[in-house]
Amino acid sequence: MAKLIIVDDEKPIRAALRDILEYEGYDVDEAKDGEEGLDMIMRTSYDVALCDIRMPKLNGLELLMKVSEAEKSTQIIMISAYGNVENAVEATKRGAFDFITKPPDLNRLLITVRNAIDRAKLVQETKTLKKRIYKLNEIVGESESIKKVKDTINRVAATEARVLVTGANGSGKEMVAKQIHEKGSRANQPLVEVNCAAIPSELIESELFGHEKGAFTGAAARRVGKFEQADGGTLFLDEIGDMSLSAQAKVLRALQESKITRVGGDKEIKVNVRVIAATNKDLRQEIVNGNFREDLFHRLSVIMIHVPPLTERRGDIPLLADKFLHDIATEYGSPVKEISPDAMSFLQSLPWSGNVRELRNVVERLVIMCGDEIMLDDVKLYA
Questions:
Q1: Under CATH, which architecture does the 3-134 domain have?
Q2: pTM across the whole model
Q3: Which of 64, 241, 274, 324 could be joined to 279 by an S-S link, Cβ 3.0–4.6 Å?
């Protein structure tokens, strides 16, 4: 049942609105002024608040601003006898869902309330999803090496500095990139990922910069590239060490000038993108071998973060395994299983050439194949 609050200093108005809304099946509270209304909204999860504009102690617009600052999902519908354009414009500018004049038209009121409830649910679902995604992308570990990684992420996230993440396959480079994005000022903008190793060299430029219709055989329509898709947000170039030299030159130009040109086009397109790159290769050696541009390396590596392999932080394996057990249980909708102490010790002794990604796969296999408690023999059989 949707929960609503009426904030109005006129008792007859509150009573009339309450009767209408309760008749429609809503759970309704009342507040006699803005100050009381704000206190109740902060303490209770309301879907919608219907607020008068002119009230003692705290007027409706002031209440609206404070609710917005608190990032509550409550949708505010302003109701006032002073229904002029200026009030409506000001209310919507400050984040009101809608503005209705007194006495309200009953049909419009109910339609507006229903729409506001839908919006409140959508906002709350989005917040819940973001929290879940953030938890999935959480970097787990208490070893000194991983603490250093997390500390660097916290320092660099709030800046616009480009970051180069290095480490072996499966060590968690993508997690680092996602954490930097989610903790930074661009968190509400897109994070666009490109796996440079998975795209043929002849297609990488089209993938990154887009192409115009007829630019090459098969280009039947204009395509927007990853740089444009990430405009305002973050572009994550994974395995950049596998990018062709010709594409590297264009990426360098894009970073220098904040402009790109689609393949087959001549129009320059301005882009505002933060670039995070990752590689499992030694780019300094690739420069020596003539496979990577030194000027691009220096552009990308303002901050360097090295993610250690799992064998260098075996003490983190119980924490990681516990996280995976909970994540998999949530994903499957099943109870959380446990790993016996001797089984965990055996897990810590394994070589883990595939790093954290391999550990996650092994834990998922154990969850599927084993009983409520995962024993040593289970790990020996399935790890």
A1: 3-Layer(aba) Sandwich (3.40)
A2: 0.69
A3: 241
Q: Tokens 């834990």 appear where?
A: 363
Decide: 15 and 7 in contact? Cβ < 8 Å.
no
Contact in structure between 263 and 212 (CB atoms under 8 Å): yes
Pick the CATH number of 311-382 from 1.10.238.10, 1.10.8.60, 1.10.10.10, 3.40.50.10890: 1.10.8.60
Domain ranges, ordered by start, for the chain:
3-134, 141-308, 311-382
